[in-house]
Amino acid sequence: MTHYDALLMSTSNEWYTPPKYIEAARVVMGGIDCDPASNAFANQIVKAATYYDEYTNGFDKPWPGRVWLNPPYGQVDNRSNQERWSCRLIAQFEAGITTEAILLVNAVTGNMWFQRLWNYPICFTNHRIRFYNAKVEAGQTTHSNALIYFGSNEHAFIEVFSQFGRVVRAIDTPRHTNLELWQGVSA
Questions:
Q1: What is the dihedral of CA 100, 127, 116, 21, to 10 degrees?
Q2: 172 or 40, which is more confident?
Q3: pTM greater than the 0.70 cutoff
């Protein structure tokens, strides 16, 4: 069985982010205070001061400070976890509990839940991220990926995450919505 087949056939929603993306998040935010959807194995790389796993249920807890979030795959009550967790992150950020965050989700721009993410800078990767878990070294997703930044350090996000793809942000004008494209820091 290939890594790709393992990812497609997996009954697990535990897929972890490769270290280079975590390190980039740490550079932008200066550290990671909270990873609400993690476990001890993943936290060896993330190194969050606080992390929650499926048993401690981070979904229902506050996410203070600088947050890294790679939501679990799968669904709950016919609602994707990516939708549930990204909406929760937006609520935590808008309430001022989360001061800065980087969210990693599938780049499914046609899904309604993704529309709210256009309010923030988005890095659309120029490749599909090869995730891993405790049993499989690397698995490639069936969708493209997006990393979304929440916070006041957009310049650092653009500079650091441009290495992974295009960084864009929607801008609203009185007549219509435009898409602003940033390539590197010269934007």
A1: -10
A2: 40
A3: yes
